[in-house]
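Sample entry (892 residues):
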Amino acid sequence: MKQERKRAQFFKLLLIGVLWCWGMRGSAQTKPVFLSQAKAIVTFMDTLRKKMPVEKLYLHLDKCNYTTQDTIWFKVYALQGPYLEASEKSGICYVELVNDRNQVTKRIKIPLRYGLGWANISLADMDLSSGVYAFRAYTNWMRNFAEQSAYTANIFISNLVAGDIAVKEKNAIKKNGTSAYSGRQKSAAKIPVGSDSTDLDLQFMPESGRLLAGINGRVGFKALGKNGKGVGIEGKVFDDKKREICSFKSIYKGIGDFELNPEKGVVYHAAVVLPGGQVKNYPLPVVYEDGTALKISNEPEHTDVSVTIVAGGKAKSTEGYFLVGQARGVVCYAVPVNLTAGTAKETISKKIFPTGITRFTLLSRDGTALNERMIYIDHKDQLNVTVQTTGAKHYFRDSIALNLKVTNKDNEPVQGSFSLAVTDDGQVLGDFTGKANMMTRVFLTADLKGEIEGPGFYADTGLNSSRALDNLLLTQGWTGYDWKDVFDPKPAKYPAETEFVITGKVSSVFSGIAAARVNLIGQKPFVIRDTVAASDGRFIFKNLPLSDSASYKLQAYNKKGKGFLVNLEVDEWQPPVFGALPIAEKEEDQDSVLLAKVKTATELSAKSDKISGRLLQEVNISAKKIVKKSYNLNGPGEADQVMTEKDLQKEGKKSLYDLLFQYVTNLKTGSYLFPPSPVRKYGMIINGKVVKIVMDGVDLDQTYHYYQPLDPTDAANEGMRERYLYLIECLDHFKAEDITGIEVMHSPRYNAGYNSQFLSTAETMFSKNGVATGIGGVSGVDYAYIEITTRGGKGPFIKQSSGAYLLKPLVFTLPKQFYSPRYRSNAADKSILDIRSTIHWVPNLVTNEKGEVTVSFYAADQAASYTIVMEGTDMNGQLGSLTLPAYLKIGP
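Predicted structure, serialized as C-alpha cells:
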C-alpha cells in the first residue's frame, strides 16, 4: 500500500505539472493543434516507458583494490522505472571481470530476488596479471539499450609477491630518495602517465548544440589526454583578427566553460596553454545565422529553473516549437513555444521534477530534436545514514559494535536493505574524493555516456562542484531514449529473464510437430520434467531449481513417440560483445599500497608460520605449469606437455586447430587401422598413437554420431574422412582467446587413466593393453589425449543424435558466507596472525521498524584505521550512502 501511494503521489505531481503547463498555454494566441501535439508527445513517451522500462544496476563492492589471493565480495541492487523501486523485470544478473585487452576473464550469473542479489568471485582460482580491470554487470533486458547502460567500475588487481619487494623498494629509493612503503604518498599533479602534452583532444560544445550569431551563450569544453583522461588547461579565445575575446580555465578533470557572443561570419579559435607550458591553437565550432538556441539557468539555491529559447534568422517561424522536460523516462513538462518574436522565456518549478538528471529538448513541429540540454536537480530528499560506536579507539582483536540508523529527509525511521564494508586503510586505497557511490551511479552516471572521472566530486554541495556538475552535463552525452525511438519504437530484441528457463523448438521434416513431447533430465540437482510443445513446436521448462553446477539432457519425440528424424533446437544464452571499456591506468600509489600489504604479510609470517584467511604470502614458484579449472585426470600440471593461458595470449584469433599443430610436439595427421575392421580411419596422431580430444572433460568422440549407411563404399569414405572433418569443425569453432589451457598425455604414465575413462569396450579390447591385442595378426592401437580447457568451461557445442540435446548452461553463483573470526580475548591464539584487508562484509543488512540495526565484528592484528561504507535503499525509490574514512582506530 505504501508503495502504491508513493506511485500515485509521484504521477499526480507530474500530471499536475504537465496540466499546469498546458493550462498556461490555453490562451487565444496558441493554436489548439499545438496543444494536441504536446499531449501526443506525452502519450508517446508514456507508451515507450511502459514498453521499454529502464533498469539501473548498482554494485557495492567491498573495496576497490585486490591481490590475486583475494575474494571480491559484492551486492547487486537492481532498480527500475521512474520510482527506482526493486526491479520486477529481471531475476538474473550477469557479472564480468574484464582485462585491459577487453577479454572477459570471468563471467558469473547470480539470481536476483526483489531486485537484490549478492555473490563473490575468488581471484585465487584465476590466472591474472597485475593491472586495472573492469567490473561489469548487466541484465539481459539492459542489452536492449546502449551498452553504456551496463554498470562498470574499475578495480586494481596485483599479483605481486614478496620477492618483488626488494626490487620495487630499491627502485623507489633511487627515484625519490625515500622508501615508498613508509606510508601512502600522493604524487604531485602532472599529466597522467602515457599522455603526450601536445597530443590533446580538446572539444568545444555550445550549450545547446551550436553557436548562433548574435546570441550570447555558454560554451562547454573538455580536454582529454592521449590516455583518455581529463587534463587541466587554460587559455584564451581570439577572433580571426587576433582580438582577444575571453579567457577560460577548466574546473575539474579538464572540463570547464566560458561565455561567448559570436558574430556573424567571424571565425574563432582558442589558444590553449598545455600542461607542459606549450601553447596550441584549436578551432571553435562555426557560427550559424539560422537556428535555435536553448539556454538554461539552474542555480542550486533557486527553486525554479529559468529557460530561454532563442531563434535566429529563418528559424523565426509561426510553425511552432515544443519544449519538453523529462526525467527518469517520464515527461514532466511539455509546452508549445512561440518564437515569432525571436525569444521565449519559461520559469519552471523544480518541484515537478524528481532528483537526478532532467533533460530539456526543443522539438520542431515534425518531432525533430533541435536543441537539448541536461541539468541536475537535487531535492536533498534521499536517506540519511548515521553510525555510532562505543569508541573511536580499539585494540587488536577487539570486539567492535556499530549501531546504524537510517532516516528519511523528515527524520522518520526507514526500513530497507543495505550492505556494509569495513576495510583496513593501510591495505585498501582510500581516496574517496572522487569515488563513485550508489547516489552518483543511479542519479548521475547511469544516464551519461562515456567514462565519468571522479563522479564523487559532483556529490559535494559546494558552489564549485555545482558549477563543475553543470559543466559535465554541458559536455557529456545521453544514454536514454533518442527521439526517433520515441516516435518509432522498436520491439525489444532481448527478453527480460525473470527466472532461469529452458526454451527451444521441435521440428520434423517428415511428420508434423503437433503434440511433440520433450523430456528433460538434469543432474546436480537431479530433476526430471516433461512438457508438450505448442503448435509451432516451441516449448519451455520453468521453475527449475537454482544450482551452481548443472547440465541437462533433453530428448524430443514426435506424436508417435519416436525420436527418429526429429530436430531439437535449444535456445542457448549468448553473451553480448561489448566494445572496449575505458579502463583507467593504474595510479602511482597503487603499487605502493599493495606492496606494503605484501611486506606486512611477509614480516608477520616471519614471526609465525600461520596467517588467517587467504592472504598474500611469499610464494615459492614451481617449474610445473598449472592450468586452472582443468579436468586433467592425473591432477594439476600432470601431463607430458602443458600450455597455459599466458602461453596462448599472443595468439588472439588463431583457431584451436591451428594452435594444436603449432604447439603440440610431434602432432601429425594420418590414417590408422582399427581392428578388426578392414577400413582405415583418418585423424591426428602423436608418436604413432591415435589422438582423442577431450574438452572440459568431454570426449569429442562422444559428440560425434555416425549413422551406418547401407552402401559399404560410403562407410569406407566416412571412415577415411568424416570423423576427422567433424573434429576440424569443432576445433575451428574455438579461438585462442577462448582457451585457458592445453595439456597433452601420451606416455603410459599419463594416458592410462584416460584410457580407462574414455575408451569404449571395443577400443579397450583392441588397444595395446587390451586382452585381444594381436587378433588377426593386427597389433593393438595406442592412444594419446589432448585435454582442452576453455574459458567458458562448457566443453564443445554438443548436439547429440536425432531429437537429443545436451545443455550445459552458465550456472548460478550462489551466495557464500563472508568469514569473520570470533575471538574470546585479544590475546587468544597468537600463533595465527590476522591481517585481513576487508575486516567485515555484510551484504544483507536489514533495518527494523525504528530504522536501526547493529553490526558486530572483531579487529585484526595490526595497527590501522578502518573505513566504513554503508549503502542501500528502502526499495521504494529512496537511496542512502555513507562513507566514513578512517572512522575506527586500531592499536595494541
